[in-house]
Design a protein that fits this description.
The chain is an alpha/beta fold. The protein has a domain of about 220 residues: 3-Layer(aba) Sandwich (Rossmann fold), CATH 3.40.50. The chain has eleven helices and twelve strands. Strands 3-2-1-4-5-6-10 form a seven-stranded parallel beta sheet, with helices on both faces. α3 packs parallel to α5 and α5 runs parallel beside α6. The radius of gyration is 19 Å and the shape is globular. The two termini are about 35 Å apart.
Length: about 325
């Protein structure tokens, strides 16, 4: 996988929605290192122990607001003469979507079209990368998902991603807006403070010498993707759009290693020397797809992309980060 020249992002006006989120914080750090002029959209105040340091936030322009605020979106894109947009902001927790579907639909669907409409009305925009999800595919009999798999979300979170995905590609087809969509699996890695996710929740339990808790029956197969690889993939796709004119498509990004929830939990237990802590299996998860995993053949063959991190190395980095955070 080729890397961008050191000057590619220098002084380029970039909008990152969700700049303080899990993937957004890593992407912000990555592009700040390459001297991009970053405008970040954040809905809420910054968690004190998030990955982004206060010093880094002081070196970018942070706008506080919501995606649903169209005048704000238009002002940001227009006044800052945005050239590249990374749309990562979303309500990302499945259980939250089940409890509060309307707020999820507002942020994930309405927020997406408000941003895209602002981009359509602003001629400076040359590339828009919209972060979708493997959840957009819904439940399918044929696995792994590839980009021709229909988008058939059925539960609130999945539907919100299916809709945002389709809306994004419609803006390209109907208005020639330079949009590409990314579809990734379950992100994990340094900076994730959502403790109900399996990786941070398991590591925190182990550090407390407690049994990790699995909400499902543990047999669900998932695609786990390291957050640093995710940020690099978004950057890589944007560069392909700007340099090669690739636009209007969707790309799966995955290390193409599938594991059950229980297998991943036991792997982390073993790596942390706590194999004797037997997981508690609640078997209470609802509105979740049984098996989901992706083919990244299109990204590999068309873009020349490949992940940089091996899973064991990524998990070791992740464990070390939580040990430092919670130690």
């Amino acid at each position: 996988m080729e890397t961008s020249p050191k000057t590619f992002w220098r002084d380029r006006n970039v909008l990152i929605t969700g700049c303080t989120g899990l993937v957004g914080s890593h992407l912000t750090r990555l592009l700040h290192h390459e001297q991009a002029n970053i405008i970040g959209l954040a809905r809420d105040s910054i968690p004190t122990k998030n990955l982004l340091s206060t010093d880094l936030l002081d070196q970018i322009t942070v706008v506080t607001g919501t995606l649903e605020d169209h005048p704000l979106m238009l002002r940001i894109v227009n006044e800052y003469e945005i050239e590249t947009v990374f749309h990562l902001a979303a309500q990302t927790i499945v259980s939250t979507a089940n409890r509060s579907p309307l707020s999820t639909f507002e942020s994930n669907i309405r927020g997406t079209w408000q941003l895209l409409e602002a981009c359509r009305l602003t001629k400076t925009v040359k590339a828009v990368v919209v972060a979708s999800s493997d959840k957009a595919y819904g439940s399918q009999e044929k696995l792994p998902y590839d980009e021709t798999t229909p988008l058939e979300g059925r539960h609130p979170y999945d539907v919100s991603k299916s809709c945002a995905d389709l809306i994004s590609l419609a803006y390209h087809k109907s208005f020639d807006l330079p949009v590409c969509v990314t579809r990734c699996g379950n992100f994990y890695g340094p900076g994730d403070l959502n403790w109900n996710r399996i990786v941070p929740g398991t590591i925190r339990s182990i550090l407390r010498n407690e049994q990790p808790v699995i909400r499902s029956d543990g047999s669900n197969i998932r695609d786990y993707f390291y957050v640093r690889d995710g940020a690099l993939a978004y950057q890589f796709l944007a560069e392909a759009m700007l340099q090669k004119g690739i636009s209007g498509g969707a790309f799966n990004f995955s290390n193409e290693i599938q594991m059950t929830v229980l297998e991943l939990t036991r792997k982390i237990l073993g790596m942390m020397g706590k194999a004797d802590l037997e997981p508690i299996i609640l078997n209470q998860a609802g509105n979740e797809i049984k098996n989901q995993y992706l083919s990244a053949a299109k990204a590999r063959n068309l873009l020349g992309w490949s992940p940089r991190y091996k899973m064991d190395d990524a998990l070791r980095e992740t464990i070390a980060w939580y040990q430092q955070l919670l130690g």
